[in-house]
């Protein structure tokens, strides 16, 4: 019997990085000493007190039953306490919080909640590829907002075509930014809110790296006056507490958008395992020393990597102010794919070619600071060796 997939399956974008990942796996299997800095999977373990909270919760049979559809009240309250403590943002636990299976799920769902076929969503270029997945599922179209180096990798709303702005219903932003490692200013968020209000565009701010800003200026979108009128912020425990495998995220802010996300999820899920929800509340309410330590670790790794490249005369380097990535300009005359390919084949270093994040990502590769400092310095030496021959 022929199995005919639904049209939506054909609309889903190609996974650009899949072939690089599988070729790296082949090299590793062949016994080659590969330094894999191509992906964004945190390398350090979840802090012990959070794991212990899960162990305790898993022993309690009440967590074995279906949890409430929209998450445990204790987790929703913990999320509000966390936002009030970290950002001074007050949230209503009933109406302004949607618990998610990781940020990724919500970032895909929001397009299904807001977009009809033919609608437009604005996306950052370069940007996190999964924004495009949700837009494709909704049958909508995207228009890229280039993040230019000369603008500090912030979109320039004056460059958005007026007709596009009028048709756009949704916009994705992400600071600290993957892949450029840039951070946003409060002035930029104020401009964003004014632009969104002018054109009736919902803002989805992806704050996945909220805990990993190094310049001290990084803030929540929800701190800006009027933010809740126009949008929501997506937060995740994946990076803040090394909990990527646990799949805990949340969307916060505009109550209409939050209600849409919760309604869609009422049909898909019965929320996360109660034990994970209790451990997530422990993470948010417990001692935050582990977060400070993690931020310091990533800062030292970034410094070790960039200082090594500088010492070795790498042609051009950019500051990395947030996230755990370094956005590295490719040597003059080399494309991002060609450079990444040479790094893989000649030196066994895996990086992500910038073009995989959008056309404006050409001319850069993304390097994840997800290995010990000595290993990152070794990677820098190998990268500089290829650049010297470029
Ligand atoms: C920019 C950005 N947003 C969202 C996510 C998704 O995180 P999670 O689904 O683990 O919450 C990631 C993960 O790599 C990311 O880099």
Structure description:
With 390 residues, the protein is an alpha/beta fold. The chain has two domains: 7-46 and 289-389, Aspartate Aminotransferase, domain 1, CATH 3.90.1150; 48-285, 3-Layer(aba) Sandwich (Aspartate Aminotransferase, domain 2). 44% of the residues lie in helices and 14% in strands. The protein is built from 15 helices and twelve strands. The chain has helices spanning 7-11, 18-29, 48-59, 73-87, 102-114, 130-137, 162-167, 186-199, 227-230, 237-240, 255-268, 274-285, 289-311, 336-347, 373-389; strands at residues 35-36, 97-100, 120-125, 141-146, 168-174, 202-206, 231-236, 249-253, 325-329, 349-350, 352-353, 364-368. The protein is globular. The N and C termini lie far apart (53 Å). The mean pLDDT is 96. It binds pyridoxal-5'-phosphate.
- Please mark out the parts with pLDDT under 50 across 5 or more consecutive residues, or reply none: none
Write the CATH architecture name of the largest domain. 3-Layer(aba) Sandwich
The total count of strands amounts to: 12
What would the average pLDDT be, to the nearest integer?
96
- Counted up, domains total 2
Pattern of helices and strands: HHEHHEHEHEHEHEHEHEHHHEHEEEH
Please give the radius of gyration in angstroms.
21 Å
**What ligands are attached or bound here?**
pyridoxal-5'-phosphate
Q: What topology, given as strand order, has the largest sheet? A: 2-8-7-6-5-3-4
Number of helices: 15
CATH superfamily of the largest domain, by name, is: Type I PLP-dependent aspartate aminotransferase-like (Major domain)
């Amino acid at each position: 019997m022929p199995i005919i997939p639904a049209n939506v399956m054909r609309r889903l974008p190609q996974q650009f990085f899949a072939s690089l990942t599988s070729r790296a796996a082949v090299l590793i299997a062949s016994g080659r000493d590969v330094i894999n800095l191509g992906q964004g999977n945190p390398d350090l373990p979840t802090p012990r007190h959070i794991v212990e909270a899960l162990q305790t919760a898993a022993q309690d049979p009440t967590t074995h039953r279906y949890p409430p559809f929209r998450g445990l009240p204790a987790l929703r309250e913990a999320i509000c306490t966390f936002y009030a403590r970290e950002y001074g943002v007050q949230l209503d636990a009933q109406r302004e919080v949607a618990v998610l299976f990781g940020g990724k799920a919500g970032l895909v769902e929001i397009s299904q909640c807001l977009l009809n076929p033919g609608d437009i969503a604005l996306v950052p270029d370069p940007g996190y590829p999964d924004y495009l997945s949700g837009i494709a599922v909704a049958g909508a179209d995207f228009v890229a907002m280039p993040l230019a180096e000369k603008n500090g990798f912030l979109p320039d709303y004056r460059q958005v075509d007026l007709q596009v702005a009028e048709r756009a219903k949704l916009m994705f932003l992400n600071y600290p930014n993957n892949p450029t490692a840039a951070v946003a200013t409060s002035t930029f968020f104020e401009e964003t809110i004014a632009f969104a209000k002018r054109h009736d565009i919902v803002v989805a701010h992806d704050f996945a790296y909220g805990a990993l800003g190094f310049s001290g200026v990084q803030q929540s979108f929800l701190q800006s006056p009027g933010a809740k009128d126009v949008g929501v912020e997506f937060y995740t425990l994946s990076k803040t507490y090394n909990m990527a495998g646990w799949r805990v995220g949340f969307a916060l802010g505009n109550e209409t958008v939050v209600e849409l996300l919760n309604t869609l999820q009422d049909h898909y899920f019965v929320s996360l395992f109660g034990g994970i929800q209790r451990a997530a509340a422990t993470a948010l309410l417990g001692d935050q020393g582990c977060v400070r330590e993690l931020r310091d670790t990533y800062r030292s790794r970034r410094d070790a990597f960039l200082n090594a490249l500088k010492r070795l005369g790498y042609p051009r380097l950019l500051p990395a102010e947030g996230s755990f990535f370094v956005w590295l300009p490719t040597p003059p005359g080399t494309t991002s794919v060609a450079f990444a390919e040479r790094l893989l084949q000649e030196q066994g270093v895996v990086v992500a070619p910038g073009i995989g994040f959008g056309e404006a990502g050409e001319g850069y590769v993304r390097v994840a600071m997800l290995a010990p400092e000595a290993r990152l310095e070794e990677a820098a030496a190998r990268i500089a060796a290829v650049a010297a021959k470029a």
